[in-house]
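Regression test case RT-17, inverse folding.

Input:
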């Protein structure tokens, strides 16, 4: 089955069982400052798992686009990717283990057509320290499901991955593992969870590809072995606990943990949080342990073969590893750019730049036949446009971002490599050398490290980091006191233009889309200068529409209201800020609105000052100049006349 067929079949399966289909959230989390990217389907739904009502009900299903930077170093084998799709279904205080496990088993066997003889299960062995019991209930549910297919499913005792390598399969089909394997929370095991974090035991399903066991991963094979025989394809989390850490050790909790002031309490509702890797289920459906052979990733490899004459099937292990990295990183870059990320040297932009440049560098290492990588974006867009139409809608912007970054990096490789060759004549590369390559030539640390390793040279990452931090501090010191919040002063003309800039930001998002984010501003009594994320030059029609929206907002004399709020409350109200900026727990939010109708024109984090009503701006806004200032970043200079 193709990925598209599996995705649709999954959504239809759970929709038929009362689930509302919800769209994939953006890769850019809206209300989660703890992470740069959305890495799971449950991430946008944490408030609902903690008891907040979802407007579409208590049964939800979707396919969530996800990115996990922490998996980057694993990419290159046959099963790891940075970008992936997570099939997810949720019960928010509705059904629980009995329905969830039976439904997922039915979907895999009757829906996708997997052989139940090839499916193996893991369950939670219990945590005596935290008084969380062994999950015998799930074991009995699984035994009944397999029995309905004529299969006797015996349970086996493993407890830890290390013991699994000693004991092996034990003629079992259902395996007990400890909290390191069968407990799920965003923070890891029960002992790693902070106060208030939800989590619970889980039950994973593995597909057996029946490949030979590699003894370097342990004497015996078992479902959680890393030899490649088994692949996890789905995980049902029974999220019913929340960790409590009390200041007073005698303030409650169960007896086992009372003295240390830590325990687990039941959530107000029992939840099911399921996540299944679409790519992995697709690989199981074609009985191939290499997920790069499925239709979506395979299409990128086929395009590489057509364009560069790289034959994945005939390649060596080293060449195949490079092709996987290039394919994965290209796909991730397309989705990032599609959600409005632009290459830069910090935060999300840095991660996009890193994976793009890593893919380009790896492609150059393979060398033969390589020209440019960015045209392959079409293949990714074509494979995913039916599920994610925004990719096709933003294809020009995506191509522009990828092409510009690749052209920049090609110059960087040439100049940086030349300088590297000059430095290695001394027989070593210091951390200071590596930083100078980065600072003067834009040559990433990762490339210096890789070239050094190829030459058998050591380079000290701590030295590089120390130089990097020293440079950051000097930059902060140099910029301190020049402009506060982008304002030259707090004179009346500056205050008027400051409020106008908020109107401009809102107008740009209305005309161009929600990928527009402020990247900086500089406001003097004469003009405003506003930097924002957008890949293409504005047309005359777009500029005129922006001017029209700003001037209508001035003419309507909207009220400008200041509120001091907790950060998360402000985010929930829709307040936006400078892209990548870190805010304190309490923020000032300025809302431009019509108190009679309740219409909100703009709501932003800001330190002020502002006019009280937009009519005080007194004049017509005009775009004087619009230009590019960096990859994916445009600048508008405007005046009020």
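Golden output:
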């Amino acid at each position: 089955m193709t990925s598209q067929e599996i995705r649709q079949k999954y959504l239809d399966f759970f929709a038929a069982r009362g689930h509302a289909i919800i769209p994939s959230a953006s890769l850019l989390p809206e209300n989660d400052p703890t992470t740069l990217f959305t890495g799971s389907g449950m991430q946008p739904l944490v408030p609902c798992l903690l008891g907040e009502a979802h407007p579409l009900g208590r049964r939800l299903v979707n396919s969530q686009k996800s990115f996990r930077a922490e998996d980057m170093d694993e990419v290159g084998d046959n099963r790891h990717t940075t970008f992936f799709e997570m099939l997810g279904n949720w019960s928010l205080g509705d059904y629980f283990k009995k329905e969830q496990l039976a439904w997922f088993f039915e979907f895999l066997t009757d829906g996708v057509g997997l052989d139940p003889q090839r499916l193996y299960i893991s369950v939670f062995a219990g945590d005596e320290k935290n008084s969380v019991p062994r999950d015998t209930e799930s074991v009995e549910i699984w035994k009944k499901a397999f029995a309905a297919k004529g299969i006797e499913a015996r349970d086996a005792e493993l407890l830890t991955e290390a013991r699994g390598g000693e004991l092996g399969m034990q003629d079992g089909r259902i395996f007990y593992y400890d909290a390191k394997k069968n407990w799920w929370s965003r923070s890891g095991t029960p002992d790693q969870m902070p106060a208030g974090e939800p989590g619970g035991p889980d039950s994973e399903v593995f597909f057996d590809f029946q490949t030979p066991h590699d003894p370097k991963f342990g004497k015996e094979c078992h479902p959680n072995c890393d030899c490649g025989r088994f692949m996890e394809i789905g995980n049902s989390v029974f999220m019913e606990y929340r960790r409590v850490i009390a200041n007073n050790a005698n303030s409650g909790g169960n007896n086992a943990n009372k003295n240390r002031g830590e325990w687990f309490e039941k959530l107000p509702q029992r939840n099911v949080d399921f996540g299944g890797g679409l790519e992995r289920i697709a690989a199981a459906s074609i009985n191939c342990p290499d997920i790069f052979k499925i239709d979506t990733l395979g299409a990128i490899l086929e395009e590489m073969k057509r364009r560069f004459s790289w034959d994945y099937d005939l390649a060596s292990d080293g060449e195949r590893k490079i092709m996987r990295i290039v394919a994965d990183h290209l796909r991730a870059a397309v989705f990032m750019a599609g959600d409005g990320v632009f290459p830069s040297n910090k935060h999300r932009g840095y991660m996009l730049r890193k994976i793009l440049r890593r893919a380009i560098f790896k492609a150059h290492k393979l060398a033969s036949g390589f020209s440019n990588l960015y045209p392959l974006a079409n293949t990714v867009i074509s494979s995913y446009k039916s599920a994610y139409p925004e990719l096709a809608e933003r294809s020009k912007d995506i191509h522009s971002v990828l092409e510009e970054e690749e052209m920049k990096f090609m110059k960087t490789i040439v100049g940086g490599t030349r300088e590297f060759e000059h430095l290695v004549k001394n027989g070593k590369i210091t951390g200071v050398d590596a930083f100078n390559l980065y600072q003067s030539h834009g040559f990433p640390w990762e490339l210096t490290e890789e070239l050094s390793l190829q030459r058998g040279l050591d380079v000290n990452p701590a030295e590089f980091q120390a130089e990097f931090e020293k440079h950051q501090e000097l930059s902060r010191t140099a910029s301190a006191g020049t402009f506060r919040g982008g304002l030259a002063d707090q004179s009346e003309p500056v205050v008027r233009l400051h409020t106008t800039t908020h109107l401009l930001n809102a107008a740009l998002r209305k005309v161009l889309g929600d990928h527009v984010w402020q990247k900086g501003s500089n406001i003097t009594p004469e003009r405003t200068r506003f930097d924002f994320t957008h890949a293409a030059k504005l047309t005359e029609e777009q500029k005129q529409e922006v001017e029209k929206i700003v001037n209508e907002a001035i003419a309507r004399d909207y009220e400008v209201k200041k509120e001091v709020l907790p950060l998360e409350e402000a985010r929930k109200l829709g307040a936006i800020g400078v892209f990548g900026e870190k805010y304190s727990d309490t923020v000032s939010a300025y809302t431009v609105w019509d108190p009679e109708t309740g219409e909100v024109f703009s709501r932003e984090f800001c330190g002020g000052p502002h006019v009280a009503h937009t009519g005080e701006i007194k004049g017509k806004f005009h775009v004087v100049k619009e230009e590019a200032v960096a990859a994916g970043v445009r600048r508008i200079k405007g005046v009020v006349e």
